[in-house]
Amino acid sequence: MQGKLLVGVMIATIAGSAAAQSAVDAAKSSPLSASIADVPSAIVDMDAITVTGVQPGPGLWRFHKGDRVLWILGTLSPLPKNITWVSRDVNAAVAASGVVLQSPGLAVTADIGFFGRLSLVPSLFKLRKNPNGTKLQEVLPPDLYARWQVLKVKYIGNDRTSEKWRPVFAANELYQAALEKNGLVESGIIGPVLDKAVKAAGIETRPTVLTIKIDEPKETLKEFNASTLNDVECLRKTLDRLETDLAVMKTRANAWAGGDIDALRALPYDDQSLACQSSLTDSGFTQKLGIENIQSKMASRWYQVVDDALQEHKVVFATVQISQLLKPDGLVAKLQAKGYEVESP
């Protein structure tokens, strides 16, 4: 689940946290599609104002090898909050597919029931906090803390709750608040449309996530609460993004909504979520759980699920982050190396 934090997934899967489940939902995005005919249009304003109204979104990538076809929809987060995404091409591609593959990601699971989850609640309250009551000002270099304070006042206000949090959680709180104040959302635009298309087609959805099972969730959370993380870089990159990329983030979101692939190609960005994920997956704590080389393992899992699905079905629909489709050394190049021909939107 690119862009989504491992601990967010841990909370949702182990403890049933409703707040963290929104992170999981954002990573669940499903499949893809083709053209943009007959879609009602709204004016797309490509300045720092987010677009509204009905929008067509991007076209689909079509990969084919022999008689097998893989449709891929490139997803983006965040997107304008007040758009309605309508893509008849996606509906048609889903309807023609035998299975829809959900987006790649990471899931952490544990065999516990409802009462087991309740027993973890005390540990969850401690999860966000730095060990031993350490405050953010003590963890961050002075220059970084000064930058944090400026943006915190701007987007969160004077609430000092987050001053006790680990940098990775403070970064996420700040990022979410900044998106909200700028008319952007991480989830809720793509997922519901795809779910409706899948339901109408009456076909299977299949996860592509890499799943890691925790045998002792209570002890695991206890150990996490006592551990330190190398997560200062996560907060640094989040501040960098909000200071330099927020206006462009709106332009990028508008470009996705309007289906402007050329504009998206011209607006690459440094995704802070990778640094935030690494602060968790590269820590000594997570390595004890066997969580190492996560990006590579997640990619291998996705390709394996795609290969298996295309063995079973002539047409398969999938979703991945659009940045993976636009990078010169990204998904397109890798699928071409596997013998696929590609038709870009």
Descriptive notes:
Residues 225-252 form a coiled coil. Keywords: Coiled coil, Signal. Residues 1-20 form the signal peptide. Pfam families: TraB_PrgY_gumN. This is TraB/GumN family protein. This protein has 345 residues and is α/β, with parallel strands linked by helices. It has a domain at 6-129 and 186-228 and 261-267 and 283-343. The chain has 17 helices and 12 strands. The protein has helices at 6-15, 18-27, 88-96, 114-127, 136-139, 142-155, 167-181, 190-201, 217-226, 232-244, 246-258, 261-265, 272-281, 284-287, 294-312, 322-326, 331-337, and strands at 53-55, 61-65, 68-75, 79-80, 83-85, 99-101, 106-109, 184-185, 204-206, 210-213, 315-321, 341-343. The strands form 4 sheets. Strands 9-6-11-3-2-12 form a 6-stranded mixed β-sheet, with helices on both faces. The protein has a two-stranded parallel ribbon with strand order 1-5. A two-stranded antiparallel ribbon has the order 4-8. Strand 2 and strand 3 (68-75) form a beta hairpin. Helix 6 packs across helix 10, helix 7 (167-181) packs parallel to helix 10 and helix 10 packs antiparallel against helix 13 (272-281).
